[in-house]
Amino acid sequence: MDRINELVEILNEANYNYHVLDNPTITDQEYDKYLRELIDLEREYPEYVRDDSPTKRIGGEVMDGFSKHTHKIPMFSLSNVFNEEEIRDFDSRIRKEGFTPEYVCECKIDGLSVSLNYEDGVLVSASTRGDGVTGEDITNNVKTIKTVPLRLKKPISIEVRGEIYMSKKTLHELNLRREADNLPLFQNCRNAAAGSVRQLDSKVAASRNLDTFIYHIPNPLDYGIKTHFEALKYLESLGFKTNKESTKVEDVDGILEFIKRIGDKRKSLSYDIDGVVIKVNDIRMQLELGNTVKYPKWATAYKFPAEVVLTKLEDIIFTVGRTGQVTPNAVLDPVIVAGSTIKRATLHNEDYVLAKGLKIGDIVSIRKAGDVIPEVVEAIKERRTGNEKEFKMILKCPICGSDLVKQSGIVGSYCVNSKCPARKIESLCHFVSRNAMNIDGLGEKVIEDFYNYGFIKEYSDIYNLYKRKDELVMLEGFGSKSIENLLLAIEDSKKNGLERLINAIGISGIGAKNAKVLASKFGSLDSLMKASYEELTLIPDIGEVLASSIISYFKDEAKVNEIERLVSVGVNTLYLSSNVKEDERVKGKRIVITGSFDFITRDEIKKFIEDRGGNTSNSVSSKTDIVIVGSDPGKKYDDAVKKGITIWRSEELKEFLNE
C-alpha cells in the first residue's frame, strides 16, 4: 500500500536525522501523528507491514528465551594494556613484524557488544558476542533501538558490529522511575544496558531508550574498504551512528595524546567509557598480523585506571613506624588500581581490621584513597570458602621483641623502646621526607644503608655527613657528583621554615598541617617548647590529645638534647612568615583537591591555598566549600556534584594562581 510505504520512509528518515545526526527535521507532534496513522493502517492491512517499519521499535513480543546464533566470523575480544609502557610494547611488537603502522583511536564504550546482520539492506538478525563463536539472538529487542537502521541507505548484505549502551541521562531517569516504584536501582550504565537487552518482553527493552555506536565491519575488503578509518565513514554512509571522537594518529605519541584528551573529557561525555581502543588502520596489515586464539594482534584496549578492584588478602604483616606505632598491613595478590600495581595496603590498626571483619584469605575490594593511597574497602564475605584465617593482633614488637602497649586516648599498639631499629629508621625517613625537611637524595633505601653503616643514628648525624665524604664516595652507587649534590641538599635544608622542622622531629599526631599552625602561633621552636597545656588546647585543631602529645615530647630529655644538637649545626628554628596576604576566596574555607594537573603539583596547590588562609582536606563532606578538579578526578568529583559543592576546574585554579 503506497501510504504505508510513504509513512515508513518519512518516519525512518526522521528517526535517522534525530537519533543519529542529532538534527531533527520534523516536530515531535508531526512524528507522533504519522506514527499513529501508520499503526492504524498496519492494523487494517497487516499483509502490507514492512520489516523495516518503525512500529517494530515499539516492542511487544514476549519470548520464552533466547535462541543461539553462530557468528560466521568469530567476534574476538581485545587484549588490555594499562600504561604507556604496555602501549609502546604493543606498538613494538607490530613494528618487529616489519610494519610501520598508523592507528585509529576510539572510545571504549562501556556497554554490550552486538552483531547486526542485513540482507539486501534489511535487518534480519542481531546477536550478542557470547563466547565469540555463539551468541544469543536478541533481534526483537535490538529492533526497538532507534539508532539501529531497520533498512540501510544502500540495499546491500552486510554484517556490522558495535556496542549497545545506555546514556548517563537515561540511567538517571530510569532509576528515578524505579525508585518511585520501590524497585532496585541499576548501579551503572553497562549493567542497565545489558539487563535491558536481555529482557524477554521487548516492550521493556523499548522503554529503556537504548542507544548504539557501530564501529566494525568484519570483512571490509569485500566492500572495497582499505582502512579502518574508511570503514567508519562507510558505516556512516549506510545510516549507522558512529562515535565522533574516533581519531587517526601516526604513532604512540598520538595515541597517548588521544588518551589524555579523552581522559580529560570523560566525565563530560553523555555516555560511559572505560578506556580507549587502539587499532591498526590498514586492513591488509591487520590481516597479515592476524589473531591469537583469543585476541586480534592488530588491536588492543587501553583500560582507564579502575576506581575499585577485587583481589585476595594473602596475609597481614606488621611494621613499626617512627612513633613506635605497630601497623598491620595487607599483603595482596598484586592488582592494578588506578594505573599502578598494588601489592600492599595499610590496615592502620587493630580496631580498623576488626571493624571491617577482615580475614586472611578473603577476597577484598581495593581503591586508592585520595586518588593516591591504596585502601582496603571491604571483605567480599559471600566469596568466603571456610579456609580463611582469623586476624590476631600481635603482642610484641616484630623487630625488637618489646611488649606492645596501648596509650591512653590514642588508637593503636606501640613499641615504646626508643632504641628499636625499626622506629629509628622510620623516624629518619620521615625527617628527610618531602613534607618535612625535604632532603633530596636521602631516600628510604639510602637511609637504611646509612643507618646500618653507622653513619646516621640521630637526626643531627645527617648534618655531619660532610665529615664522612671520603667514606661515602667509596659506597656502591655513590659517585662524587651525587655525594656533592646530597651534601648541598642537606646544607640547604637548614634554611627551612619552622613548620617543616616541627613536622620532621616526629611529635606523635602532628603532621604538616598542624605543624604550620603551631609554627605561625609560636614563631619559634623555643616558644613552642615552653608552651603550656592550656595554651595548646586553645589553638584550633589542637585538642587535648595532641596537646598532651606535644607536652610529653618536650619533657623527654633525649629529644630535647637532640633538638639542641640540631640548633648547634645551624638548623633554623624560626617561623619564616609569608608576606602573602589572605585571599577572601579561600580564607577560612575547606578545600579538597582531586585529580592531576599538568602545570602544578597538588602539594604546591595546597601550600598556595594555606598561605592565603584556606584549609585543605582529603575528603569531601558537608563542610567542604570548594573542590578543585584536575584530570581523572575520581569519586571526590562525583561526591561534590551530588552535594552541590562549588567546583573549580583548571581554568578557575589558574585564574586564582595568577591573581
Outline the structure in words.
The protein is of the alpha+beta class and about 650 residues long. It folds into six domains: about 1-60, Helix Hairpins, CATH 1.10.287.610; about 70-305, D-amino Acid Aminotransferase, Chain A, domain 1, CATH 3.30.470.30; about 310-405, OB fold (Dihydrolipoamide Acetyltransferase, E2P), CATH 2.40.50; about 420-495, DNA polymerase, domain 1 (Orthogonal Bundle), CATH 1.10.150; about 500-570, 5' to 3' exonuclease, C-terminal subdomain (DNA polymerase, domain 1, Orthogonal Bundle), CATH 1.10.150.20; about 590-659, BRCT domain (Rossmann fold, 3-Layer(aba) Sandwich), CATH 3.40.50. It is about 35% helix and about 20% strand. The strands form six sheets. Strands 12, 13, 14, 16, 17, 19 and 20 form a seven-stranded antiparallel sheet that branches. α1 packs antiparallel against α2 (about 30-45) and α12 (about 420-430) packs across α13. The longest helix has 19 residues, at about 1-20. It is elongated. It starts with a helix and ends with a helix.
Descriptive key words:
alpha+beta; D-amino Acid Aminotransferase, Chain A, domain 1; OB fold (Dihydrolipoamide Acetyltransferase, E2P); 7-stranded antiparallel sheet; 5-stranded mixed sheet; 25 helices; elongated
Write the layout of secondary structure elements.
Layout (H helix, E strand, L loop, with lengths): L1 H19 L7 H17 L23 E3 L9 E2 L2 H13 L6 E7 L2 E8 L2 E7 L5 E3 L2 H4 L15 E8 L2 H13 L8 H9 L4 H6 L3 E6 L11 H11 L8 E3 L2 H14 L7 E8 L2 H7 L9 E5 L4 E13 L4 E13 L2 E7 L3 H7 L2 E2 L2 E7 L3 E7 L9 E2 L13 E3 L6 E3 L5 H12 L11 H10 L5 H4 L6 H4 L7 H14 L4 H7 L7 H11 L2 H5 L3 H5 L6 H12 L1 H12 L21 E5 L7 H10 L3 E3 L8 E4 L5 H9 L2 E3 L1 H9 L1
Parallel strand pairs: 2-11, 21-22, 21-23, 23-24
Antiparallel strand pairs: 1-6, 3-9, 3-10, 4-5, 4-7, 7-8, 10-11, 12-13, 12-16, 13-14, 13-20, 15-18, 16-17, 19-20
Helix pairs in contact: 1-2, 12-13, 17-18
